Amino acid sequence: MSRAQVLEEIRQEILVCPKCALCKSRTTAVPGTGSLNADIFFIGEAPGQQEDLKGEPFVGSAGKLLDSLLKMIGIKREEIFITNIVKCRPPGNRDPRPDEISSCNPYLVSQIALIEPIFICTLGRFAMQTMIDPDMSITRDHGVPVRRSGVIYFPMYHPAAALYRGELKELMKEDMLRLKALIDSEKEK
Fold first, then answer.
1. Residue from 60, 75, 167, 168 nearest 121 by CA
2. What's the pLDDT tens digit per position in 70-107?
3. Domains of the chain in sequence order
4. Is residue 89 a contact partner of residue 54, using CB atoms and an 8 Å limit?
5. H helices within the chain, ranges in order?
6. What is the H or E stretch that residue 152 is in?
7. What is the DSSP string of 93-119?
8. Distance (Å, rounded) from C-alpha 3 to C-alpha 111?
9. Would you say the pTM of this structure is higher than 0.90?
């Protein structure tokens, strides 16, 4: 079976997943999209309303901000893979619960293992604490890379946070420029 077929198999499993209560309230699951050969893998927290309706991650206002930040550093959405730690929208956009995160985790682990990214960019506190370290603080640790097992983890604020708190947009731009510098320095090695 090819890597593309395996990724499609994972996607199909996510679309019908009954592992937690979120399956009862979702319109559609949001498996993730992007390049099978992506060096950069973005992980958000959970789908929002627009994502729940369309079945794609980061298609609402937060996604538009993320797209503009990627464009600022010369990266196209098609070049990355993007998903969430939870594949279904929590009711009322509440924070994902630990049992929901653990239910979805095998899907995320499988996606990462298949794509083998060089960089994993976590967007928001839940993604950062799930993927890097539960004791991390987004206000303290955003923009600081963590190298682990050949992968560079790069925590960032979630774009939705910057929509609610405008001062975070500038921090996100600075972090995105740091990410670009890190990517460029890795390419030179």
1. 75
2. 999 999 999 999 999 999 999 998 999 999 999 999 99
3. 3-187 (3.40.470.10)
4. no
5. 3-15, 22-25, 49-54, 61-72, 98-115, 125-131, 138-141, 159-164, 167-187
6. strand 151-156
7. GPPPPHHHHHHHHHHHHHHHHHH--SE
8. 10
9. yes
